């Protein structure tokens, strides 16, 4: 089992920055990849950014150049640095972990609201 707890969301004006954090506990050795998904009202949940345990990263086209995902194995955390935020970045951001492709875990999410 893997337990994920997000923090760092909030209200920010367009152009501003936020840093999200996800604290990971439990059987962290099974994790092959992690990511930040976001759920906007009335829209399909999407993967905003992902990171493999090997270090490879993925970014949705809409966040490339603005978001940076990172993972600190020593501190068992994953972070998402978001800058140049836009109103369309508004949504609930959820931390996700994949355990060797056999199971997956989700945090409860943290709300990000970007005002215009």
What do these coordinates show?
Helices cover about 0% and strands about 60% of the residues. It has no helices and eleven strands. Strands 2, 4, 5, 6, 9, 10 and 11 form a seven-stranded mixed beta sheet that branches.
How many strands, which pairing sense, and closed or not: the largest β-sheet? 7 strands, mixed
Query: Poorly predicted ranges (pLDDT <50, ≥5 residues)?
Result: none
Arithmetic mean pLDDT: 96
Radius of gyration: 13 Å
Structural class: mainly beta
- Terminal Cα separation, in Å? 40 Å
Q: Note the beta-strand portion.
A: over 45%
How many strand segments?
11
Task: Name the shape in a single word.
Answer: globular
By DSSP (H or I, 4+ residues per run), the number of helices equals 0
Helical percentage: under 10%
SSE series: EEEEEEEEEEE
Features:
single chain, 116 residues, mainly beta, seven-stranded mixed beta sheet, four-stranded antiparallel beta sheet, globular
Write the layout of secondary structure elements.
Elements: E1 2-7, E2 10-13, E3 18-26, E4 31-39, E5 46-52, E6 57-59, E7 67-72, E8 77-82, E9 91-99, E10 103-106, E11 110-115
Parallel strand pairs: 2-11
Antiparallel strand pairs: 1-3, 3-8, 4-5, 4-9, 5-6, 7-8, 9-10, 9-11
């Amino acid at each position: 089992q893997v337990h994920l707890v997000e923090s760092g969301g909030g209200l920010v004006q367009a152009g501003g920055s936020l840093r999200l954090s996800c604290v990971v506990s439990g059987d962290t050795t099974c994790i092959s990849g992690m990511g930040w998904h976001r759920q906007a009202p009335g829209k399909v949940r999407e993967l905003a950014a992902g990171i493999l345990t090997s270090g490879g990263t993925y970014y949705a086209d809409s966040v490339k150049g603005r978001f940076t995902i990172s993972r600190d194995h020593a501190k068992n955390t994953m972070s998402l640095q978001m800058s140049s935020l836009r109103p369309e970045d508004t949504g609930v951001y959820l931390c996700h972990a994949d355990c060797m492709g056999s199971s997956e875990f989700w945090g409860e999410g943290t709300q990000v609201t970007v005002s215009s």
